[in-house]
Amino acid sequence: MEVRITFTEPLLGTLSGNKDIAEEFIMSKHPDGPQEDELHADLPEGDVEKSTTVFHRKDGQIFLWDYQIKGFFKDACSMLRRIPDTRSSKLTAYKKIIDGLIFPAPRMIPIEVVGELTFTERPLRAQTAKGERIALARSETVPVGSSITITVNCLHKKYDKLVKEWLDYGELRGLGQWRNSGMGRFSYKVL
Is the pLDDT of residue 146 over 80? Predict the structure, then answer.
């Protein structure tokens, strides 16, 4: 199914703006090592503050990776499994199903930006053994009204309705960073 996702709340970037940190993180997290296209995605021009997160870029175009959509599907399914009578509540081994039978495309999903990219600053709070810690985070931000278009390939039709249930959940909990505050919420339309 082809789906157009339109952001109803700003979307925050997730990639460290520091090239060394970004590459080290990607290398440490990818089970098969970094993919060539991941290592050669561009960072924004100029100096970026140490604590800033940005969007991946290729030839100046910002984009999301397909695995970020899969991650959203897993997060949505995980939460919706807790609600009786949802389709997700009946799905067992949901992570394996999403990984092996549901494929968002393209690999690099261009973001159609409406307006200008800005930055959002926010406090990060953590409860530690030494008490509460607070740090400042800064993220490149895509404005409301921006959108992406994806194709979701389900290898069995019975998963189509699950994908729609997860996309419905996107109105409540979005993509990207700071989802708990409502950032990255979206509406969608099946094209």
Answer: yes
